Amino acid sequence: MINHFCKKPLWDVARTLSAVAGGRTPADTVIRNGRLVNVCTAEIQDGLDIAIVEGRIALVGDASACIGENTKVIDAKGQYISPGFLDAHIHIESSMLSVTEYAKVVVPHGTTGIYPDPHEICNVLGVDGVKCMVEESRSTPLKCMYTMPSCVPAVPGFEDTGSAIGPKEIAEAMQWDEMVGLGEMMNFPGILYCGDHAQDIVAETLKAGKIATGHYSLPETGSGLNAYIASGIRCCHESTRAEDALEKMRRGMYALLREGSAWHDLQEVAKAITEHTVDSRFACLISDDTHPHTLLSKGHLDHILRRALEEKIDPITALQMVTINPAQCFHMDHELGSIAPGKCADIVFLESLETMKVTRVIIDGDIVAENGKMVTEIPAYTYPAWATNSMHVRDAITPETFRVEAPAGAQAVTVRAIEVIPAKVNNLEKHVTLQVRDGLLQGDLEQDVLKAFVFERHHDTGTVGKGFVKGFGIRKGAMASTVAHDAHNLLVVGSNDEDMALAANTLIQCGGGMAVVSEGKVLGCVPLPIAGLMNAKPVEEMSEIVSRLEEAWAQIGCSMPSPFMTMALIPLACLPELRLTNRGLVDCTKFQFVPLIVEE
Amino acid sequence: MINHFCKKPLWDVARTLSAVAGGRTPADTVIRNGRLVNVCTAEIQDGLDIAIVEGRIALVGDASACIGENTKVIDAKGQYISPGFLDAHIHIESSMLSVTEYAKVVVPHGTTGIYPDPHEICNVLGVDGVKCMVEESRSTPLKCMYTMPSCVPAVPGFEDTGSAIGPKEIAEAMQWDEMVGLGEMMNFPGILYCGDHAQDIVAETLKAGKIATGHYSLPETGSGLNAYIASGIRCCHESTRAEDALEKMRRGMYALLREGSAWHDLQEVAKAITEHTVDSRFACLISDDTHPHTLLSKGHLDHILRRALEEKIDPITALQMVTINPAQCFHMDHELGSIAPGKCADIVFLESLETMKVTRVIIDGDIVAENGKMVTEIPAYTYPAWATNSMHVRDAITPETFRVEAPAGAQAVTVRAIEVIPAKVNNLEKHVTLQVRDGLLQGDLEQDVLKAFVFERHHDTGTVGKGFVKGFGIRKGAMASTVAHDAHNLLVVGSNDEDMALAANTLIQCGGGMAVVSEGKVLGCVPLPIAGLMNAKPVEEMSEIVSRLEEAWAQIGCSMPSPFMTMALIPLACLPELRLTNRGLVDCTKFQFVPLIVEE
Asked: Is the confidence at residue B600, as pLDDT, over 80?
C-alpha cells in the first residue's frame, strides 16, 4: 500500500537518506545518548545514534559522520527512545474534541498515529462529514489513518440517521489517500449469516487491498468467531475475556486490547499475554473511546502502557503492542512502527520504562511536543456551516410536545420501560404501571421512571419516539443530548415537560451537545456544534465544561458515573434488551418494534 | 496487495466460508486428530479440526457440524499440521529444472509457495523469458510469487547479456498479477552511492506498493548497511556471519538465513537467533540456489528446517521462519503463512517436529502430495522455439578459434590468470609465465593453467573474451557451459584447442548446457535447452545426468566439489578479483578492463 502519512515518499528521498547514512550529506537531526527500544528484535540497545533527514531515519548506529554545521544534535541524556505510539482503533468523536484539539492533547503523550473510525460523524453528516475530519487531519502532525465507517446506520430499518453507507460508498472511500481500511464491522450477524450488505462492504475493502477492522463482542470463540474471521476481518477490539483475546490471536486475528475511559478491559484481557506463553505479535493496545478528562488527567497510550505494566506485561512487549504490531496489522510496517533506516522519523522519548513518561515527541523528523506540551502550531480548521448546523428538528418543541396519551378512560397503564444499569452497555426491559392524569401518561419519580423522547434531527422528518426510562435516580429537571448512539438524534429525558422542552431547545439553539436543566434553569450545557458531537475548544476547557455537566447531573439526583454515557446508549438498537429510537421502542432481542403499552 | 495465488479471492467466497464455519453448509474437507502448529501464537494446539471449502480454511476448532455426506474427512492420526512452507528467495534456474519439474520435486517436501527471482533467464531472454516462467507456473499447484530481476546486466558495460532491464521494465512488470516485488538488488554500490539506475529501479517497485528484496553481502553493518536499508529494501539473504543477520533484523530488515546446495550459511547465521534473546519475527529460512541432487536426496525447506534444528533453533520458531515470517515480509500474511480462518488452505502434515518429515501436502484445499510423491498431474508446458533456441554464436567454432597470439618474437609471456578457489565464490588474480609456440600462447598443465574463452551467444555479435584460468587440476580434455553467471554466454575452458572446440560445439548443438570432453569424446553432457539454463526432464533424470557430468570432471582430473559451479562464476564480473567476460578480462576490484599480458 502506498500511503501518504509521511513528509515525502521514500522513493523521492532515498538518495538523500543513502547520502546521509554514508556521511556524504549532513543529517537534519541526530539523536545521541539514547537507549533504543528496538521493537524489531525486542531489545534495548545502548550507544546508538539516530540520524534523520527529510523526515525519515537515515541511520541507526554511529552518526558521527552525519553531523554537519546545521545539524540539530539532540542529547537524549540516557532516556529511552521508542517508535511513536500508534492507536489501532479510536473514535475521535468520543473525546468531543475536534481533530485538531484531539491531536494537541494526545501527541504530547507520545501518540504519533491513530487509526480513527469516524463512525459518529458519518451517522450525522455522511461521507461529507468524514471528508471534513480527513481534511482537518491534514493540518495536524498526528497521522490520522482513517477507516471508513462500515455500519451506518447501525441497525437499518429501526432508526433514521443523517446518512447511509453501502458498498458503493465504501468502494469510493477506499480510493481516498487517507483511507487505509474499513471501520469496525459491528454487524456481525450480517457477516455470520451472510447478509449481502455486510459481506459486500467487507468485500469492497478487500478488493481495494485494504484492511477490514472488526467488532466481534460475543463470548463465543467457535463457529461464530471462525465465520467472522473467515470473512477477511483482521482485527477486533471487543474482547472482554482473556480467552476471547487469546482465541482471536490464535486464529490470526489481531486482538486489540482496550482500555478506554469507560471500558476497562485490560485487567482481564492482559491475561491473554501474561498467563500464556505465546508470541504476542498479534496483540495491540488501543483506547477506542476516551473522554477529555481522561486524556487530560491520565494521558492516552502512555496511560494504557502504564496500565499494561500494572497488569504485568513486559515493557518491551507492551511497546511492541503500540508500535510494530499495529503497523504490521495495517501492512504499514514498511513506513511506521519501528526506528529503522527508511522509516518515518516518528520518535518518542521516555523518561523510563517504569513510568512511560513521555518527554519529547518527534513526528516526521520535527520536534512537535516537549515536556507534555505541543511546541508546534496547528492552523485552525473551520468546519463548513452545514457541519455546524446539524439540528434539523422539524416541529417547534414546547412542553405540549412531551404529552403521552393514554388509552381512553384508562386510570393506570402498564408500559415497557428501559431500565439502565450504571456503567454497563446493556439494559433491561421492565414493565411498570404508571398513573394517568387528564388522559395523559405520567412519569413517576417514586418508581424512578422518567419520560424519554427521541426527535429525528437530520432531515426534518418530524418523527419522534416516545418511551419511559428507569434507573437514573434523578429527582427533578431534565437532560438532553445529541450524542445518542448511533443515529445521534435528539434524545430528551426528564421529570417534567417544561424542563424537557427547555433542555431540547437549549441544544437546538447551541447546535447540539448535552444539557441538564432544572426548574427552568440550564444547570449545565456542553455545546457540541460540530455535527452535535464535537467542539473545537481546547481539551482543558472541554474537560471543565463536561465536569460542570456531571455536577449538574448530581445536583438533580443522579449518582451514576458518567451518566451521560449511559443515557447516550438509550437509542442504540444493536444492544439488548429494549431501546428507543426516533421510530419507537425496539425489542433488541427480537429486532422488532414493540408498543409502549403492554397488552395484558 | 491483492494477489492471485489462491483458488478464488476471499471476497468471492467469504459467504461460503461463513456458512461452513456456521455449520449450515458442509465443508469440502475436514482434517481431524492433528496437532496444530499455531505459528500465530507459537503454540502446539491439540484437539482442533480444520474445515476447508473453496480452497480456503473456514474454521479451526470443532468441525463436527461442518461434515456432510460428501465431505472428505482426513484423519491426521496425531501428526503435526503446519502451514505450507514458503521460500522467500529462490532461483529456480539453479536447479536446472523447469518450473514444472521444480514444483514436482519441492511440493512433496512441503513447499507450497516460493518467491523466485528469475534472474538467470532474464539475462538470457529478457522480460519475455520471465513471462514464460510466469506462464509455466500457472499450471503448477506451487504458488510462484515472482520478483522481477533488478540487475540485468549485473555489471553494465563489462559484458553482453541477452537483455537489459531498467526502471521502465520494472514499472511495467510491477503491474503483472504474479509479480510481488523486485528481485535481489545486487548493485549495492548503486544504492549506497545513489546511482540513478539502481535507485530508480527500487523506486518503481515502492511506487507500485510492492516489496524490494535485497542482496547486501558486505561484512559491514554501519553506514553501508543503513544506507542500503534506508532505500526501502526489505530483506536480504546474503548474511554469512551471525552478526550481519542480527544487525539486519535489528534495523527492521528481514534476514533470510540461507542453506543452499553450495552456500551453507546456517551453521553460522543461526547463532543470530540461538545466541541472542531476540524476537525472531524478522528471520526466515531460504534456499537461494539448490541443485537437483540436493532436492532429490535431502529435500527443500524440510531439509533446511532439519538443519535449523541441528543448529538448535526451536522447532516452532523454525516453522515460523518458513511460514508466517516470510508471509509478513511480503505483506501477504492475510492470505498465506498460517492456518487460520480465511487463509488459503496450504497445509503440510509432519510426522514429527524432530524429523520434519512431510507426509502430505495440501494446496488450496487439494491434496497434491502424499508420502513424498505428487498425487496430482501437472500439464506439460512447452517453451516457445525462441526460448529453446538461444545459442546465437556468430562464428563457427573450430580448434583454430582458440588460438591466443603472443607478441611478435616473444618466447615466454607473463599473463594475468584467474585462480579459482574450491567452493568459494571469490577468486584471485595470479600472474603466470607461459611458453610461446609457433607465435601462440599455450596453456600449461604443469602450472595447472588452462585456456578460457567466453563467446557472446545472445545476439550474434561475434565478441569473444580470451584468458587463462588456474586451479581446476584437470590433466586433459575441456569443459564448456552456458551456465556462466550472469550473462550466461558460452564459456569454454580446456587443455587443448580440439577438445575446447568439441565442447563448445556440443553445447551449440544441444541448445546449451554443460559438457566435459576429452580426446575427442564427449564424457558428460547436461543439455539445458531452455535458455541454455534449464531442462524439462524430471529431477531424477537430471540428477543422474549431472552426476555423470561430475564423474566426467573427475575422469579428467578435477577433484573439486561441484566444479561446474566454480567454473560458472569465472565471468561473474561483480565479484573479486579477476573475471573473464565476452568483452575481455575485468579487474573487479577496480572495475576496469585489463590486458591479458602483464606489462613488465
From this structure: no
Measure the CA–CA gap between A133 and A302, rounded to whole angstroms: 24
CB contact under 8 A, B232 and A45: no
A14·B249 Cβ contact <8 A: no
- List all residues 6 or more positions away from B239 whose beta carbon is below 8 Å from its beta carbon: B245, B248, B255, B257, B258, B265, B269, B272
For residue range B402-431, what is the model confidence (pLDDT) as tens digits?
Answer: 999 999 999 999 999 999 998 788 899 999
Which DSSP string corresponds to B81-146? EEEPEEEEEE-GGGGTB-HHHHHHHHGGGTEEEEEE--HHHHHHHHHHHHHHHHHHHTTSSSEE-E
Nearest CB to A249: which of B41, B58, B281?
B41
Per-residue pLDDT for A138 more than 60? yes
Q: Do B59 and A226 touch (CB under 8 A)?
A: yes
Q: What is the DSSP code string of B1-36?
A: -----SSS-HHHHHHHHHHHHTTSS--SEEEEEEEE
Cβ–Cβ < 8 Å for A353, A360: no
Torsion sign over Cα B156, B157, B161, B162: positive
Rounded to the nearest angstrom, the minimum Cα separation between B252 and chain A is 6
The SS3 call for residue B550 is helix
The answer to whether A213 contacts chain B (CB < 8 Å) is no
Residue among A1, A19, A41 whose CB faces B194 most closely: A19
Instruction: Verify whether the Cβ–Cβ distance A1 to B209 is below 8 Å.
Output: yes
Judged by CB atoms closer than 8 Å, whether chains meet at B278 and A42 is answered as: yes
> In the prediction, which pLDDT does A3 show?
55
Which residue of chain B comes nearest to A229, CA vs CA?
B341
Residue A497: per-residue pLDDT = 98
Please give the pLDDT value at position A426: 85
Rounded to whole angstroms, the Cα distance separating A43 from B276 reads 10
Element (H, E) at A80: strand A80-83
- Are A558 and A474 a contacting pair, CB within 8 Å? yes
pLDDT of residue B113: 98
Q: What is the pTM of this model?
A: 0.96
Partner-chain contact A58 B253, CB within 8 Å = no
Q: Are residues B305 and B313 in contact, defined by beta-carbon separation less than 8 angstroms?
A: no
Contact, B569 vs B576, CB < 8 A?
A: no
Of B40, B202, B234, the CB nearest to A282: B40
From B335's Cα to the closest Cα of chain A, the distance in A is 9
Q: Which of A189-198, B196-205, B314-323 has the lowest mean pLDDT?
A: A189-198
Nearest CB neighbour to A279, from listed B11, B42, B206: B42
For strand B56-61 and strand B43-53, is the pairing parallel, antiparallel, or unpaired?
antiparallel
Nearby residues of B541 by Cβ (< 8 Å), 6 or more positions away: none
Contact assignment for A226 to B1 by CB distance below 8 Å: no
What is the number of other CB atoms lying within 10 angstroms of the CB of residue B591? 13
The whole-number pLDDT of residue B436 equals 97
Q: Which of residues 250-269 of B touch A (CB under 8 A)?
A: 250-253
Q: Which residues contact A263 (CB under 8 A, 6 or more apart)?
A: A288, A289
Residue A115 has pLDDT above 90, yes or no: yes
**Probe site for chain A from B4, B226, B323, B335 (most A CB atoms < 10 A):** B226
pLDDT (average), residues A562-578? 91
Q: Give the ipTM.
A: 0.95
Grid cell for residue A83: 517508535
Q: Phi and psi dihedrals of A502, rounded to 5?
A: -65, -45
Long-range contacts of B187-194 (CB under 8 A, 24+ apart): B187/B150, B187/B151, B187/B154, B188/B215, B188/B216, B188/B217, B188/B218, B188/B224, B188/B228, B191/A18, B191/B227, B191/B228, B191/B231, B191/B233, B192/A18, B192/A22, B192/B224, B192/B227, B192/B228, B193/A18, B193/A22, B194/A15, B194/A18, B194/A19
